[in-house]
Amino acid sequence: QQQVKQSPQSLIVQKGGISIINCAYENTAFDYFPWYQQFPGKGPALLIAIRPDVSEKKEGRFTISFNKSAKQFSLHIMDSQPGDSATYFCAALGGGADGLTFGKGTHLIIQP
Amino acid sequence: NAGVTQTPKFQVLKTGQSMTLQCAQDMNHNSMYWYRQDPGMGLRLIYYSASEGTTDKGEVPNGYNVSRLNKREFSLRLESAAPSQTSVYFCASTEGLAGVSEQYFGPGTRLTVT
């Protein structure tokens, strides 16, 4: 049973545009929702994270929107740049389980 | 401060061979994790260690064993490798309460089993 569903699988955005990646979760006990960025040949690195007591968190060009009632959260990348081209993973933690539960990833390409 | 280091970077095994993947962190973190990453599957937790001296199974533990050698080191062993274990393996660590703070990932070990 996939506990965190991520979409789309791949995304192409023009430079300067907005990239949006969506995730949905099933376990209402999750209480920490990070987004990780991964470049080819590298390990994932934390980009931004949110807890369910807030509906939005912004760090520079990156924003997480969180909808607790719908059990959904999304990553918005404003003014997308070619350097943002990477694979993005949403994840969730909590519910008595240790270790992160990851979505399957979104391969983002920003076209110049 | 090297963060999380993993050895080897690449490995090719034949079915039935054994090997140990090494992981070390120099951030004085309490919790350490092993994940595997397969195309289109995201990362899946194999085993974790919430503190020195403890280990627990994750989502996909079959075919693996782990050892938390000390606070710095957490190894993953494949006793009899199978082609289904071809994957990229990532070690991660976090400080304080397990998982509440940022997990730092190593660069990965790319393993091929033929």
Please characterize this protein's 3D structure.
- The complex is a heterodimer of chains A (112) and B (114).
- With 112 residues, chain A is mostly beta strands.
- Chain A has strands at residues 4-7, 10-14, 19-25, 30-38, 45-50, 56-59, 62-67, 72-77, 86-94, 97-102, 106-111.
- The mean pLDDT of chain A is 93.
- In chain B, strands 2, 4, 5, 6, 9, 10 and 11 form a seven-stranded mixed sheet that branches. Chain B has a four-stranded antiparallel sheet with strand order 1-3-8-7, with no helix packed on it.
- In chain B, 0% of the residues lie in helices and 51% in strands.
- Chain B has no helices and eleven strands.
- In chain B, strand 7 and strand 8 form a beta hairpin.
- Classes of the chains: A mainly beta (112), B mainly beta (114).
Assign a percent range to the helix content of chain B. Answer: under 10%
Q: Overall 3D geometry of chain B?
A: globular
Mean pLDDT of chain B: 92
Number of helices of chain A: 0
Oligomeric state of this protein:
heterodimer
Characteristics of this structure?
heterodimer; A: 112 residues; mainly beta; six-stranded mixed sheet; five-stranded antiparallel sheet; 61% strand; globular; B: 114 residues; seven-stranded mixed sheet; four-stranded antiparallel sheet; 11 strands; 0% helix
Task: Describe the secondary structure blueprint for this structure.
The complex is a heterodimer of chains A (112) and B (114).
Chain A: E1 4-7, E2 10-14, E3 19-25, E4 30-38, E5 45-50, E6 56-59, E7 62-67, E8 72-77, E9 86-94, E10 97-102, E11 106-111
Parallel strand pairs in A: 2-11
Antiparallel strand pairs in A: 1-3, 3-8, 4-5, 4-9, 6-7, 7-8, 9-10, 9-11
Chain B: E1 4-7, E2 10-13, E3 19-25, E4 31-38, E5 42-49, E6 56-57, E7 64-68, E8 74-78, E9 87-94, E10 104-105, E11 109-113
